Structure formats: structure tokens, C-alpha cells
């Protein structure tokens, strides 16, 4: 299997009350093309930070070290709009932050183009500038394309991101059809009518009942599960290589969660996407993923094939997580307490 | 300590703080630097400023020391401004909290009363109130507060409406807390920050209203006020414009200082909020 | 024979929205015996949280009766209701949202003791320390602000507040759903210990059948505001009869893949 991206010595720290708090410590991780990788961990494990780092969505105040290398085989999507110019230096702090990075990320150009209005990655432009390692290291895109066999990913086009709370990630005053069509228009260069047709198709693919009506619906008219389906449709609208689902089912009830998980499984298989599934629920991860990576306190504790992690965990923490799982096959706790009474 | 440092980070806040500090120093030192009645005759009438260094800002039509009047007038402006704004915020917060928390008929009645007060311009209300009750410091404070409490009341009500749906209010009910205690101990303190953000505007408006009332001769006649000084100077505006200009500038600086410091406070709390 | 602790009969709550009437809860009846755990399970929108709020009288029903400790609970009002609340407590899903953001641990517990006159002002600090120890926390935690302590500690404080007034029934509304898995087991064990020692009954609301099966004696499965089925928790979850029961069991994530994807 070929690698889609490789993460080397990734370290992320947030500044809080003047102190620095490490969210990720020296993470090394390869994600293979087409695999379904689950990242599991408890709160504070750094799993969401990893997702944001891969998508280039970390807040500007985060201190980043290490590198993320992408291996995108085909050049930038043909439909992409005007050749992206070199990023304007928008943030005065950029140079300072960039100098923190141990090794610059591979060229992440083409990210700050003005047409990038995808609701999914509002920070992409800023992020790219930051990870480049400072103003001086920026190179024009053409040069990069000829000298490097890698192509930089673009949030929204090459990476689809599904957040936990769909009501926060969808624009409350825009019909959902338009929100999806906008992604298709921005990244695939479609005209509005085609973009809308594509949005209709996508809503059908995410199995929203009555997609034609749903195109014109506003987020508040949909249920939580339906909103998450719309968010997924928007995330895959541009045909991304990588779909990141960050606790995408945690706010939903069990039945809707199972539906969304099977939807993600189906879409990933159909489009040949790579899936990064972030969850706190090891059982849910086991149902969906080929491989599971266990995170704790910002460190990668253990990574392995799902069967190995579930049946033969090597690390004590993984075992503890498995033991703490309360499934339908677990011995009821009630009996123990009753016996002790 | 760090709060104060954060507050003093913007130049606006520093300027506001300096102006307000100077104002408070004036008010506090007035009776030390200028003991005795500021309305007593101190020298020849209509002495221009910077002529006699015992009377640096000159004298008015009756030969009173302008600098002494300015210092004593700052007391009235500050006292009335702060007292009226405090009264307005307290009344507004209580009315808004009761209306928002009780809902139903209580809300309806209180908000219609608020509407009634809001439709009458605040200054007219104050004018009418002082003319009827008679001018004294307390009445002027009440008169100004009467026109200014509706803003805080509306903001407090809107905030309370969102807070009362939170889990911790349900939690307080579950442990059997009395509704009034829930309203004023659990809900009101958390509804206060946006209400307090209004305070700089209200203090500034109260100082101006007080000056306007004094200008119209409806201030406390036994106290020196800047508005009264401006009115006094008006009769000799052509020959001695400094008599109106000096208290006018003092008034402008005071209002500016209150605004700037208020902005600084709002910004400081906003930063703290985004941090938490 | 002792009578049930809580008897809910024909409870109904309807909302009116845009001229339409939506039944959030319709014709729901169940009983809870002293010292028993009854779970309410169901998908979102099935009415479980509405029932919790009705039982606690945070909202008023459109029909039905609730008898609590032999009295008509809906007939109580004012100070009589507030006094009776000591016996019927609640723990919320999000322990951060359940407390005043300005509160300290001590104040939260002090309120409960003060309102119900359980301890005098001078005696309260000692009682607070004892409560903290009963829920497995260090008494040093008392002066800390609620937002400074961890999620698991907060939920223990919430349980401490609930048991401060010696309740006979505690409503647990998704009380462990927001907790990390490693903390969740500890909290469930704490709840079971308290139940064993003090015969507190629980109305345990959850969408997680795994947890329900682990902690509840009986379960009521709800669908669209009505009872779909009810019975012994292990029996119902082991062999659900209703469509919604089957769907919930199927949808519960399992560590070992039983069905091919």
C-alpha cells in the first residue's frame, strides 16, 4: 500500500495563560492510501489536535514542530480556479511562529487562493503560511511542481472534514444545497447550475430523504442526524482524498450513530477515500477501522491492525481502555454491588 | 494585578485612566486646595486667565475664583454622574432580572413600563421631574436615573432569558432553592457583564444631563456645577468667552475620559472571556 | 408490603409548534421500588429527558399523575414542593453546565445543606468534608472553583450535592455519557455503592444500552414518547421484542465484529 501522508516528529503546543501546554509530542505516523485509520483516546489525548494539524486547521496561536509530508499522485485538480498566487503575508506573527517549526512542512502552496471560501477550512490560508516555515522559504508553485513529485493538499478539496457538531459547522442562514454547491463550485470549478445538480446528487448519496426539498432547507429544519449527513455531503463534495471525521457521531444517539458510521463506510469504499476516524469509543472504532492508533496525553501509545489492538493489545493503557468498555457482553456491575451489600 | 496590566495595554485605556485619575484628584483635593466657599468673591470681576497667579484661571462676573469653581464643580459632576449611573444600573438589573426570570404576566407588565419610560426622551423626563420635585442633588440623581435605567433593564432581561434555560438553574431548582434566590444569586451575577459594559455610556450621559440641567438652572443652587458655570458665562460670552470655554473643556475631557476608560474595561473583559 | 417509591401513571406532555401538536411524552406509566434502578432508554427525541424533567417537576405535565413517597407529587407547590425536593435529586449529563460558573465546590454543597436546614452554619464545613469523602474526593477540594477541577471530579461533586439531602430517588440524566471511559466505570461503581449502602433508587436515563445493562435492574424502552417495551434489563436487552429495542441493540457498537461490514 502506498502512503498518502507521513507525519514525522509532529509536536503541537498551545499557549494558555502564558504557559505552553503540549497537545502532541513527537508523533510519527503514516497513513496509507485508502485505509481506514481510527484515532482513539480520551479527552486531552491530542486526537483532535492531530486531526486539525493534518487538515491545516490549527489556530494561529499553536506552536508547531515536525513535518507532515503528503504524497498526492496526481497534480492539482484540473478544475481549480486561477493559478494561485504566492500567499500574501497576512499575519505579522507568521515569521515568528514559522521560525518555531523544526522542519518546514513540504510546500503547501495553492492554499491561500482568493476563491477558497469553503466553509470547511476557513483557516486554511493562514495555516499554510504558518507551516511553510517563514516568508523566505516560500517558493512559487510552478517551481515546486517541477522539482517535487509531491503536491500540497488543499483543505476542502483534498481533505474533507466532518466535525462533531453539525449545527456549528453549517451556516445557519444559508440553504444546505447552496453550502454543498459552494464547495463543488470553489474546488471543482463548476458553474452554479452544475454545482447544484452535484449537490442534489450528493444529498441522494448521503441518503437524505427527499433530496430535492432538502436542497432548499435550512440547517435548523433538519434533525441532528440529517445535519451530519449534509455536513458529510459538503465534506466529500470536491472528491477529497482524505476524509477526516472528528467525533462525527458523538453528539448523535446510538441508532443514528450506527447509520452515519455505515454511511461513512459506504462512501469511503465507493470513492476510494482514505478515512481518518477520530473517536473516544474504541468499540465504534473497531467496527469501522482497518487500523487503530491509541493516543494518550499527546503521545501515540500503540498502533496496529484493529484485530491486534482489540484481541492482543500490547500496551497496558490499551488494555485498560478495552476493560473500561461497557458493551452488551460485559458482566453486569449490578450483581457485584448486590453481592457486596 | 495582571488584570490592571491588561487594562493598561491599549493607549485609549491609558488616556482614559489618566483623565479619570486627574478628575478624581481634583474632586478629592478641592477642599484642601480651595478651602472655604468657592462661591465667595475672591477678586475683581471678569479677571482674564493667566493674569494674576493667585487666581490662575481668572474670575467670573461676580469676582469668584474660576479654578476653585472648576475643582468644586468636578465633585458635583462625578458624584451625580456615578450616583445616577449606579442607580440606573441597579434598577435596570433588578427589573430586567425579575422580568426575564419570572416571565409571563410579570414580564409583560415590567416590560410595558420599560417601554413607557423609553418612549419619553430621558432629558425631558429629568427636566419634568426636577421642575416638579424641586432641585437638589438627590432629586437630580433620581431624575437622571429615571431616564437611564431602561437600557440596562433590556440588556439584563435578554441575558437572563438565555441563562434561565441553563442546566445549573434547573439544578438550583432541584435542590429546592427559593426562586428569588435563584434569580438574584445564581442568575443575576452571570447576567451582569453585558449590563456593566453599558456603564461608561450611562455615566457619560449622566454627567452631560446633569450639566444640561444645571445650565437650565435646574441644578442644586447651593453647589457649583460646570453646567451652571457655562450658563453664568453665557451672558458675557462676547467679552469673556473663557468663562464658558473652561468648564466646557473640562466637561468634554471628563466625558472622553469615561468613554475611553469604559472601552478599556470592555476590551479587558472581552480578552479575559476569550481566554477562558 | 411496602408501596412503590415512585408511581408514574398515564403521563403526557405535548408541545404546540406552528399550529401542530407534538406529543413529547404520551401515556407513560411505570413504578420505581425503593433501592431499585430503572433505566429509561431510547433514541433522541423518544421523550426520556422530558420524562426526567416531568418527574422532577421542572416542567408541568398535560396529563397524568405522579405519586412520590405516597403523596401526589403534582399537588405540592411552593415551600412544600421545595422541601420535598430534598428527597428527589438529579445529576445532569454535563457536570460543567450543571453548576453556576462562579461556584466553588464548597458553595455547591453548602447550598444543599443550608436550604434544607440539614446542618447549622458552623457544622456545615465538616459536613461538606464528609460529603466529599463519601463521593471519593479529597476534602481539600472544597475551596476550588468548579471550572478548575476535572470532569470526573465535577460529576462526583454533582453526586455529592444530590446525596447531601438524603434523597430516596436520584434522576441520572445521561450522567456518565459525557465522561471518559476510564472515569465512567468509577462513577458507576460509586453510584452502585451508594445504592447498596443507602438504598437510593435511581431513574437512569441513557441511550447507551451497554451501560443500562450493567447498572439497571429494569429498563423501559421508549420510542417517540411512548413505551415500546419494558422489563428486566438483561432480559429485554438480551432479546428485545419491539422494533426500536432491536434497532438499539443492533446499533450498539461491539468490540468484536459479529456482523460483516
- The unreliable regions of chain C are none
Our estimate of the beta-strand percent of chain A is 15-25%
In whole angstroms, the N-to-C terminal distance of chain A is 56 Å
Largest sheet report of chain A: 6 strands, mixed
**CATH topology-level name of chain C:** Rossmann fold
Helical content class of chain C? 25-40%
In percent, how helical is the residue content of chain A? 25-40%
Topology:
The complex is a heterotrimer of chains A (341), B (276) and C (261).
Chain A lengths: L2 E14 L2 E14 L3 E5 L6 H9 L7 E8 L23 H5 L25 H8 L9 H7 L11 E4 L3 H4 L6 H13 L3 H14 L5 H5 L8 H13 L5 E5 L7 H18 L2 E6 L2 H7 L2 E6 L2 E7 H6 L4 H9 L8 H8 L1
Parallel strand pairs in A: 3-7, 3-8, 5-6, 6-7
Antiparallel strand pairs in A: 1-2, 1-4, 8-9
Chain B lengths: L1 H6 L3 H23 L32 H37 L1 H16 L2 H12 L3 H12 L1 H14 L3 H8 L4 H19 L1 H17 L10 H9 L7 H34 L1
Helix pairs in contact in B: 2-3, 2-12, 3-4, 3-6, 3-7, 3-9, 3-10, 4-7, 5-6, 6-10, 7-9, 8-9, 10-11, 10-12, 11-12
Chain C lengths: L5 E12 L2 E13 L4 E5 L6 H8 L7 E6 L2 E2 L5 H7 L3 E4 L13 H11 L8 H11 L16 H13 L5 E5 L7 H18 L2 E6 L2 H7 L2 E6 L2 E7 H6 L4 H9 L10
Parallel strand pairs in C: 3-8, 3-9, 6-7, 7-8
Antiparallel strand pairs in C: 1-2, 1-4, 4-5, 9-10
Describe this structure in words.
The complex is a heterotrimer of chains A (341), B (276) and C (261). Helix content of chain A is 37%, strand content 20%. Chain A is an alpha/beta fold and 341 residues long. The longest helix of chain A has 18 residues, at 254-271. Chain B has a single domain (2-45, 55-275), classed as MetI-like fold (Orthogonal Bundle). With 261 residues, chain C is of the alpha/beta class. Chain C has nine helices and ten strands. In chain C, the strands form two sheets. Chain C has a six-stranded mixed beta sheet with strand order 6-7-8-3-9-10, with helices on both faces. A four-stranded antiparallel beta sheet of chain C has the order 2-1-4-5. In chain C, helix 3 packs across helix 4. Chain C is globular and about 55 Å long. Chain C starts with 5 loop residues before the first strand and ends in a 10-residue tail after the last helix. The chains are: A alpha/beta (341), B mainly alpha (276), C alpha/beta (261). Chains in contact: A-C, B-C. Chain B binds chain C through residues 166-168, 170-178, 186, 189-190, 276, and chain C through 53, 56, 58, 81-83, 85-86, 88-90, 92, 94, 97-103, 111-112, 115-116, 147, 161, 165.
Amino acid at each position: 500500500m502506498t502512503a498518502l501522508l507521513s507525519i514525522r516528529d509532529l509536536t503541537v503546543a498551545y499557549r494558555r495563560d502564558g504557559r505552553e501546554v503540549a497537545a502532541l509530542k513527537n508523533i510519527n505516523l503514516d497513513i496509507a492510501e485508502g485505509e481506514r485509520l481510527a484515532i482513539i483516546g480520551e479527552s486531552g489525548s491530542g486526537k483532535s489536535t492531530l486531526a486539525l494539524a493534518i487538515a491545516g486547521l490549527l489556530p494561529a496561536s499553536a506552536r508547531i514542530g515536525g513535518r507532515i509530508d503528503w504524497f498526492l499522485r496526481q497534480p492539482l485538480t484540473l478544475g481549480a480556479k486561477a493559478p494561485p498566487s504566492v500567499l500574501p503575508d497576512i499575519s505579522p506573527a507568521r515569521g515568528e511562529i514559522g521560525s518555531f517549526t523544526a522542519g518546514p512542512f513540504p510546500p503547501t502552496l495553492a492554499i491561500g487562493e482568493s476563491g477558497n471560501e469553503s466553509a470547511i477550512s476557513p483557516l486554511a490560508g493562514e495555516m499554510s503560511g504558518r507551516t511553510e516555515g517563514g516568508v523566505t522559504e516560500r517558493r512559487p508553485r510552478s517551481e515546486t511542481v517541477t522539482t517535487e513529485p509531491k503536491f500540497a493538499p488543499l483543505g476542502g478539496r483534498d481533505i474533507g472534514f466532518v466535525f462533531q457538531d453539525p449545527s456549528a459547522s453549517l451556516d445557519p442562514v444559508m440553504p444546505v444545497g447552496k453550502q454543498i454547491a459552494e464547495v463543488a463550485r470553489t474546488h471543482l470549478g463548476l458553474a452554479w447550475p452544475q454545482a447544484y445538480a452535484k449537490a442534489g446528487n450528493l444529498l441522494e448519496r448521503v441518503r437524505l430523504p427527499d433530496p430535492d426539498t432538502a436542497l432548499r432547507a435550512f440547517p435548523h429544519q433538519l434533525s441532528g442526524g440529517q445535519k451530519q449527513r449534509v455536513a458529510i455531503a459538503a465534506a466529500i463534495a470536491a472528491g477529497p482524498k482524505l476524509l477526516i471525521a472528528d467525533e462525527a457521531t458523538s453528539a448523535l444517539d446510538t441508532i443514528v450513530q450506527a447509520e452515519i458510521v455505515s454511511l461513512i463506510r459506504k462512501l469511503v469504499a465507493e470513492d476510494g477515500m482514505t478515512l481518518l476516524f477520530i473517536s473516544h469509543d474504541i468499540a465504534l472504532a473497531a467496527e469501522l477501522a482497518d487500523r487503530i492508533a491509541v493516543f494518550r496525553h499527546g503521545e501515540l501509545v500503540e498502533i496496529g491492525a484493529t484485530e491486534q489492538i482489540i484481541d492482543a493489545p500490547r500496551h497496558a493503557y490499551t488494555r485498560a481502555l478495552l476493560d473500561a468498555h461497557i458493551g452488551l457482553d460485559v458482566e453486569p456491575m449490578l450483581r457485584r454491588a448486590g453481592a457486596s451489600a | 494585578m495582571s488584570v490592571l496590566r491588561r487594562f493598561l495595554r491599549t493607549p485609549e485605556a491609558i488616556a482614559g485612566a489618566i483623565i479619570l485619575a486627574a478628575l478624581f484628584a481634583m474632586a478629592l483635593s478641592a477642599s484642601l486646595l480651595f478651602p472655604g466657599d468657592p462661591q465667595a468673591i475672591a477678586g475683581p470681576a471678569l479677571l482674564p486667565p493667566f493674569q494674576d497667579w493667585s487666581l490662575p484661571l481668572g474670575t467670573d462676573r461676580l469676582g469668584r475664583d474660576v479654578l476653585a469653581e472648576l475643582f468644586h464643580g468636578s465633585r458635583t459632576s462625578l458624584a451625580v454622574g456615578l450616583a445616577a449611573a449606579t442607580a440606573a444600573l441597579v434598577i435596570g438589573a433588578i427589573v430586567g432580572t425579575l422580568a426575564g426570570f419570572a416571565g409571563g404576566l410579570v414580564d409583560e407588565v415590567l416590560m410595558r413600563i420599560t417601554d413607557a419610560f423609553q418612549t419619553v426622551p430621558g432629558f425631558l423626563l429629568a427636566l419634568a421631574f426636577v421642575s416638579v420635585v424641586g432641585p437638589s442633588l438627590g432629586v437630580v440623581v433620581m431624575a437622571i436615573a429615571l431616564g437611564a435605567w431602561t437600557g440596562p433593564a433590556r440588556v439584563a432581561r435578554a441575558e437572563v432569558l438565555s441563562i434561565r434555560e441553563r442546566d445549573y438553574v434547573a439544578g438550583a431548582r432541584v435542590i429546592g432553592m427559593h426562586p428569588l434566590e435563584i434569580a438574584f444569586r445564581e442568575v443575576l451575577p452571570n447576567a451582569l457583564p453585558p449590563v456593566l459594559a453599558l456603564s461608561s455610556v450611562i455615566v457619560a450621559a449622566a454627567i452631560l444631563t446633569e450639566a444640561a440641567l444645571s445650565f437650565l438652572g435646574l441644578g442644586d443652587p447651593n453647589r457649583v456645577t460646570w453646567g451652571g458655570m457655562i450658563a453664568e458665562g453665557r451672558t458675557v460670552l462676547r467679552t469673556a468667552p473663557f468663562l464658558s470655554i473652561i468648564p466646557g473643556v473640562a466637561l468634554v475631557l471628563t466625558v472622553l475620559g469615561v468613554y475611553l476608560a469604559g472601552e478599556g474595561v470592555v476590551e479587558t473583559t472581552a480578552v479575559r472571556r476569550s481566554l477562558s | 408490603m411496602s408501596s412503590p417509591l415512585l408511581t408514574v401513571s398515564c403521563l403526557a406532555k405535548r408541545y404546540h409548534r406552528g399550529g401542530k401538536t407534538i406529543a413529547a411524552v404520551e401515556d407513560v406509566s411505570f413504578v420505581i421500588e425503593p433501592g431499585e434502578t430503572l433505566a429509561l432508554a431510547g433514541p433522541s427525541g423518544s421523550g426520556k429527558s422530558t420524562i426526567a424533567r416531568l418527574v422532577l417537576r421542572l416542567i408541568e405535565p398535560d396529563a397524568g399523575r405522579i405519586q412520590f413517597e405516597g403523596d401526589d407529587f403534582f399537588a405540592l407547590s411552593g415551600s412544600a414542593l421545595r422541601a420535598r425536593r430534598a428527597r428527589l435529586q438529579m445529576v445532569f449529563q454535563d457536570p460543567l453546565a450543571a453548576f453556576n460558573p462562579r461556584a466553588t465546590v464548597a458553595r455547591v454543597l453548602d447550598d444543599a445543606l443550608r436550604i434544607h436546614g440539614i446542618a447549622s452554619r458552623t457544622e456545615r464545613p465538616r459536613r461538606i468534608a464528609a460529603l466529599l469523602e463519601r463521593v471519593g474526593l479529597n476534602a481539600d477540594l472544597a475551596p476550588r472553583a468548579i471550572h478548575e477541577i476535572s470532569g470526573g471530579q465535577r460529576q462526583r461533586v454533582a453526586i455529592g450535592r444530590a446525596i447531601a439531602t438524603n434523597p430516596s430517588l436520584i434522576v441520572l440524566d445521561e450522567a456518565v455519557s459525557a465522561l471518559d471511559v476510564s472515569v465512567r466505570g468509577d462513577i458507576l461503581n460509586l453510584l452502585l455503592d451508594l445504592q447498596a449502602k443507602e438504598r437510593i433508587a435511581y431513574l437512569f436515563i441513557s441511550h447507551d444500552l451497554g451501560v443500562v445493562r450493567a447498572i439497571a435492574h429494569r429498563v423501559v424502552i421508549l420510542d417517540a414518547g411512548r413505551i415500546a417495551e419494558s422489563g428486566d434489563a438483561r432480559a429485554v436487552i438480551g432479546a428485545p421484542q419491539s422494533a426500536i429495542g432491536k434497532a438499539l441493540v443492533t446499533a450498539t457498537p461491539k468490540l468484536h465484529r459479529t456482523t460483516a461490514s
